[in-house]
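Task card 7
Instruction: Convert sequence to structure tokens.
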Amino acid sequence: MTLDTLAVVEIAKNVWDSVLGADDPLVIADASSADDALVTGCVTVSGGWEGAVAVGCSSALARRLTGAMFETEPDVASTDEVADAIGELANMIGGNIKGLMPGPSTLSLPAVTVRESGLVIPGCMLLVNQSFELGGERMRVQVLQRAAAGNQGEQRQ
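Output:
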């Protein structure tokens, strides 16, 4: 099954609105512009559909999200709180995407990384790569599908 990019956009916007409110909406951004996704949360889906959903953003936007989730000032958020917030965002978006895919499936606990280089998910191919912008900060949602047997290449994100 192929996933409709518009469905991913709608899911990301709805989840974002539920966290930060509709007064601070995500805007679709040009995927060809510079990638500054330094904090990434990732969940994997296993079962009727095999894949992963990764949500990455700049550290500034991650702190802004953390401040909204924990009702605190973004600049006082701890590293653990930032990881919890990005992990929960990946969990919410991933759970909604899982619901669109063939099932039954299970969703993993989120893994979070702060990185300088690309995230590698061995044996997966990129289905959707959608960028967003909010107040000059970038966010990216990626959906990856486990490659069929015999096509087990790595996809660097």
